[in-house]
Each structure stands twice: as structure tokens, then as C-alpha cells.
């Protein structure tokens, strides 16, 4: 599968009436359905007549069955490891299966049902340093739970895969602003020169790889505490430090201290899984690489899907700060960024 496939392939369009029938027949669920926004799948929130909540997921036809099974088995693995971070749990069918194949037109999709986790999206609350620290610890706990897990689908090809940052060069054409395009190209050049040769030296495991503010839930009664993590669709085997970099790229302070939230986040992660010197050294370029991916991929998707694509419309608006934050990090510089991260890892902090 080409890396552009998931960007260009339309999302499934299962009629709601058919979704209701499938849920009742295969899962014994009856209730109301509400569509949920997704980058490439079709998702519904299901509220049953007795008040329970689930998410009904219909995978994109471009997703290989082995990749879907990878996501399913990972959730089962995390559940068995008793991870302190809440993650969706799979609901089995009336016959004990974890998924149901279905046809929509000429295409075959895999559907499944998971529990709907309570909480507020991180994007809906004001992120404090204390919440950033708790997110760091939560990310590390999740990675500890995923450690040792292996699956044939762990090598899925995604544009968002930060091990393939050089592929973003093909998307530079979608960045209309010449100055911004030059900045993104420079960051990709830095990645190729400084990070790519060191990738084999980094410790690797399966990671969530998408801990952004729409995939992290915060407790409704305590906005300083993470309630859970959702959406394991971008999960893959990669250097562990990329988990840190991806989440850090969304902890953007665009007015005050640029590292006000990233520093406690890294300290929180380091308190559970100590970072290695090389990981800290490469973090600056990895964070910038994720910001470049956000800038270029969303523009590419918008061009390929057209003006009516709801996902592009919503996220192009919410991700405007990616450009500003990338420029702020460039102004700060690699040396200052790295020194702050080393200090955060070397000097224990009160993360309570």
C-alpha cells in the first residue's frame, strides 16, 4: 500500500440504518447513533437504551486486515497488562468474535465495537504544566504496557510515520506560502542529516504514535489528570522517543515560554521511563518533524479530498498554531531546547 492511499481513499459510508441492524444482530446493541469525526474511518458513538456508551468503528477499505487485527490485538494486550491508563476495551460479538466483516458497495471493511471512555478531550481544556506532566507519565505507562508486544501488522505504512519524514518532500507542493515551504524543507533537511543516520541506534517498540489533543481524555472533575487514551489507528513499531516527540509537538505555548508545557511533559515521561542521552539529543528535530508533518499532510489531504472534507476543515483551523510554534522553536534553537530537556531529565521535579 502506498503511503498516500489513506489520505486519498474516501471514508466508508455505511448508512445509519444498516449500522443499527449490524449492531443489533452481531453485538446485541440497540440505541441511538451519533457520527464521530475521523481522519480515515467511519465512527459512530452508540448510546444504548440502558445508558451504556460504545464506539462503532468501520475501518477504511485501504486498511489491510492484518493492520486492523494489529490494533485489536494491541488493545487486548494492554488490557491484560493492567495498564493504569484507561484505553478502549473491545466488545465481543454474540458469537465471541472481536470484529465483523461487512460490504459497502464493492468494498470490504472490517467493523468492531469498543467501549466509549468518559472524559473531556484535551483539546477542550486549558493545558496546565501539571496536566502536561501527568500526560508524560501516562504516555510512559502506556508504552510500558505495549513493550514486548509483537504483531505482523506493526509495520503499516503511514505518511504520519516519523521514520519516513523524507517522504514529506513530495507534499511541499501543497504549501502555498513560499517562506513556510522553505522552513519545512529546512526541517526535513535537518532530519535527514541529524536524525536519519541515528535511527538504528534508538531503542524501538510498538508505540501509540498519535498522542495529540483529540486522542487524549482529561478527567471531567480534575483537569490536571489524564482520564484515558483513544484511537490506536496510527500505532506502529518505531523509536520510543518518537512517542515523546509526537505528543510534545501538540503542547504548544505560542505566547510565553515555548517550552512551558513540553518541559514538564518530558520530565513526567522520564520519571517512568528514563530517556537516554541520544534520545534527548534528537528530540528537537523530532518535534519539528511532527510539526512539519501536520502542516504538510493536512494541506495535502485538503487538496485531495476537496473543500467539502469535514476533517480537513476542522483540523486545518485547529492546527494553525503548528506553523507559529514551528517558527518559535526555530527561534529558540536546538541548543537551548536540548539543554532544557536535559535539565528536566536530570533534576527530579515535583510532578504531583
Describe the structure.
The protein is α+β, with helices and mostly antiparallel strands and 352 residues long. It has two domains: 111 residues, Phosphorylase Kinase, domain 1 (2-Layer Sandwich); 227 residues, Alpha-Beta Complex (Aminoglycoside 3'-phosphotransferase, Chain: A, domain 2). The chain contains eleven helices and eleven strands. Strands 1, 2, 3, 4, 5 and 6 form a six-stranded antiparallel β-sheet that branches. Helix 5 runs antiparallel to helix 8 and helix 8 crosses helix 11. The longest helix is centred in the C-terminal third of the chain and has 29 residues. The protein is globular, with a radius of gyration of 20 Å. The mean pLDDT is 92.
Shape: globular
Number of helical stretches of at least 4 residues: 11
Task: Compute the CA-based radius of gyration.
Answer: 20 Å
Distance between the termini: 45 Å
Strand content: 15-25%
- What structural category do the secondary elements indicate? alpha+beta
Number of domains: 2
Q: Number of DSSP strands?
A: 11
What percent of the residues sit in helical stretches (DSSP H or I)? 40-55%
- Mean pLDDT over all positions: 92
CATH superfamily of the largest domain: Aminoglycoside phosphotransferase (APH), C-terminal lobe
Q: Quote the CATH topology of the largest domain.
A: Aminoglycoside 3'-phosphotransferase, Chain: A, domain 2
- Level-1 CATH class name of the largest domain: Alpha Beta
Q: Which second-level CATH architecture of the largest domain applies?
A: Alpha-Beta Complex
Flag low-confidence runs.
none
* Pattern of helices and strands: HHEEEHEEEEHHEEEEHHHHHH
The biggest sheet, with number of strands, parallel, antiparallel or mixed sense and barrel status, is: 6 strands, antiparallel
Amino acid at each position: 500500500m502506498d503511503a498516500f492511499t489513506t489520505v486519498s481513499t474516501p471514508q466508508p459510508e455505511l448508512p445509519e440504518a444498516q449500522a443499527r441492524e449490524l449492531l443489533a444482530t452481531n453485538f446485541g446493541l440497540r440505541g441511538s447513533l451519533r457520527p464521530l469525526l475521523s481522519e480515515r474511518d467511519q465512527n459512530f458513538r452508540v448510546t444504548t437504551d440502558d445508558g451504556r456508551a460504545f464506539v462503532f468503528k468501520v475501518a477504511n477499505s485501504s486498511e489491510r486486515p492484518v493492520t486492523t487485527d494489529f490494533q485489536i490485538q494491541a488493545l487486548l494486550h494492554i488490557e491484560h497488562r493492567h495498564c493504569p491508563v484507561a484505553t478502549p476495551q473491545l466488545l465481543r460479538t454474540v458469537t465471541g468474535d472481536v470484529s465483523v466483516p461487512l460490504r459497502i458497495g464493492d468494498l470490504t471493511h472490517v467493523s468492531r465495537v469498543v467501549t466509549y471512555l468518559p472524559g473531556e478531550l484535551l483539546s477542550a481544556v486549558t493545558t496546565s504544566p501539571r496536566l502536561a506532566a501527568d500526560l508524560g507519565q501516562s504516555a510512559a505507562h502506556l508504552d510500558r504496557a505495549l513493550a514486548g508486544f509483537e504483531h505482523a501488522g506493526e509495520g503499516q505504512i503511514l505518511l504520519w510515520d516519523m521514520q519516513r519524514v523524507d517522504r514529506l518532500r513530495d507534499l511541499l507542493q501543497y504549501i502555498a506560502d513560499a517562506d513556510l515551504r522553505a522552513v519545512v524543507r529546512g526541517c526535513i533537511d535537518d532530519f535527514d542529516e541529524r536524525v536519519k543516520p541515528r535511527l538504528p541506534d534508538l531503542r524501538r517498540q510498538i508505540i501509540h504514535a498519535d498522542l495529540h489533543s483529540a486522542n487524549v481524555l482529561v478527567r471531567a472533575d480534575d483537569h490536571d489528570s489524564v482520564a484515558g487514551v483513544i484511537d490506536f489507528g496510527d500505532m506502529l513499531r518505531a523509536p520510543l522517543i518518537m512517542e515523546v516527540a509526537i505528543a510534545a509537538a501538540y503542547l504548544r505555548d505560542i505566547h510565553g515560554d515555548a517550552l512551558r508545557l513540553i518541559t514538564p511533559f518530558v520530565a513526567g515521561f522520564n520519571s517512568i521511563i528514563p530517556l537516554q542521552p541520544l534520545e534527548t539529543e534528537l528530540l528537537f528535530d523530532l518535534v519539528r518533524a511532527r510539526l512539519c508533518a501536520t502542516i504538510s499532510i493536512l494541506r495535502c489531504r485538503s487538496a485531495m479530498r476537496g473543500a467539502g472534507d469535514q476533517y480537513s476543515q476542522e483540523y486545518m483551523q485547529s492546527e494553525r498554531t503548528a506553523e507559529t510554534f514551528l517558527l518559535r522553536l526555530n527561534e529558540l534553537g536546538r541548543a537551548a531546547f536540548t539543554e532544557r530537556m536535559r535539565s528536566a531529565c536530570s533534576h527530579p521535579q515535583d510532578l504531583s
